[in-house]
Amino acid sequence: xxxxxxxxxxxxxxxxxxxxxxxxxxxxxxxxxxxxxxxxxxxxxxxxxxxxxxxxxxxxxxxxxxxxxxxxxxxxxxxxxxxxxxxxxxxxxxxxxxxxxxxxxxxxxxxxxxxxxxxxxxxxxxxxxxxxxxxxxxxxxxxxxxxxxxxxxxxxxxxxxxxxxxxxxxxxxxxxxxxxxxxxxxxxxxxxxxxxxxxxxxxxxxxxxxxxxxxxxxxxxxxxxxxxxxxxxxxxxxxxxxxxxxxxxxxxxxxxxxxxxxxxxxxxxxxxxxxxxxxxxxxxxxxxxxxxxxxxxxxxxxxxxxxxxxxxxxxxxxxxxxxxxxxxxxxxxxxxxxxxxxxxxxxxxxxxxxxxxxxxxxxxxxxxxxxxxxxxxxxxxxxxxxxxxxxxxxxxxxxxxxxxxxxxxxxxxxxxxxxxxxxxx
Length: 425
What we know:
Elements: H1 4-11, H2 22-35, H3 39-42, H4 49-61, H5 76-84, H6 93-113, H7 124-136, H8 150-163, H9 170-184, H10 189-204, H11 207-234, H12 244-261, H13 263-270, H14 273-277, H15 279-298, H16 301-319, H17 329-333, H18 344-360, H19 363-384, H20 395-403, E1 410-415, E2 419-424
Antiparallel strand pairs: 1-2
């Protein structure tokens, strides 16, 4: 009889498996994702910048909003969806926003489950397991199906496109180019993806790789210029307050511990004496370092590129966070539920490394990685499965009243998470 580590070993073996239809994967992933919070689509509400910026600015400035940076860079995906929803009543707009974000979130696991990355991960079953891990991964509250943070999912998708096989059809080529460009112009990630794209061009030296580098380089140039011109006026001026102790707490808590025990458990652990003394953070950092070294030692280009991208995202998050406007940044990043979007991609990379090491490393490292995955699946995922309930603050009743009101009406409406937006008809 196989025990759990044996099952993981079999899943991560080099044996090939039968292809899984993408239609089945879409239904599976969508069902799993929606089950975490059905209200995200069936009772959608604006999240943060959705109501503060995207909706009101689209109504006021129209297409000009596409050229307007926010927080230091262009956020094209949010602007485009807001413009698409422009003709709809206010009451319907949050559903359009959440629906696009939901589909965008599914594109990453669907791309992984397809055969487009077969040259890097030949075993279809391993790709399916990794895709499922990304769907059910803990700590998704801040990036779960909301338009404002869709840029993080698009960045992960752009990374996969850069490493994927050349498109075999015109429609797939259009898909690759469209989403690479959309990601490049949505957030600062093109600057972090440019080294990944450059490595792929050096290794492959194909026309496809050159085109992909061109898309990413164009986005990096545009976003870099926006950052240079607007960052001092839009980013928090507060100091980092950096220290090695805080660094170990951020890495161990926001990446390793949250993937082992879940976000809902993090506060209890961080209140313990072992955590405050620095012993537990140091041990967890050592655990993460061991898994990382084994992955870099044994991994192929896909693994090393994932480590490079994850490290660049983490470095950018730690050097230029927007965690607070009133105090040092790093102490705030150690607090559970604070700035969790910054660690979404590093946690994705960490889970992928654990899966790889669980089937590829020597005995000790393999068992460590298998234990990490079991803890993720048996503790972290169940604890973080259901998102916190959002109270009904009367958005839809007020939105319908706004839709039927005369031109020039100004109303204040509630949005997630517990804030207000101002809409003028």
